[in-house]
Amino acid sequence: MTTHPDTPPTAHPASQADRFVYIVDDDEAVRDSLRWLLEGAGFSVRTFHSAESFLNAYVPGHFAVLVLDVRMGGMSGIELHDELLRQNHNLPLIFMTGHGDVGMAVARMKLGAVDFLEKPFDDQQLISTVNNAFQQAEEKQTDSEKRALRQELLDRLTPREQQVLELIAAGRLNKQIAGDLNISIKTVEAHRANIMDKFEVRTMADLMRRFLGSSGQ
User: Domain HTH luxR-type spans what residues (predicted)?
Assistant: First the structure.
């Protein structure tokens, strides 16, 4: 796939079939080399000559990984990372540096960076690191979707039904739930029926699979 430096992608919903790698480096030869390598590995690639040009063009929504140099003219890679964090952009990020700095690497990885590659690195090392970054992004996306589904399901319930559901999930029996909440057993049974109806399940086993599964447990 042929691309041009500093050309922003058109926004569309993120898709695992469209894996974009953004490369930010002020060295044109490095940008071209990395673009050819990663396109050859099957990725869609966009290159940027500066952190500023990336920020001006970046549109959240693609399933993407950012590969950037630490030291650049103007805004540095570290400053770009800080700005992305400030804007709450959860973009998997791989730093490249010609100046090994263990302390910097540890600090950035604690802030969410996937890895630090010290130049020169071999081609397979970069490809493997990018693949790892996408794998981590997929896991985060799945976790986020599970949390969203759990919240969507819980939002269907009244506060009392949520309490009953949590106690059901904890293994409490109807009689115990009635005692815990100081309500009648018949009221507990009515709440259980409402919960199952709102979750669109027919058995308690299905209810637990849906509720616990959407909780990521």
Answer: 150-215
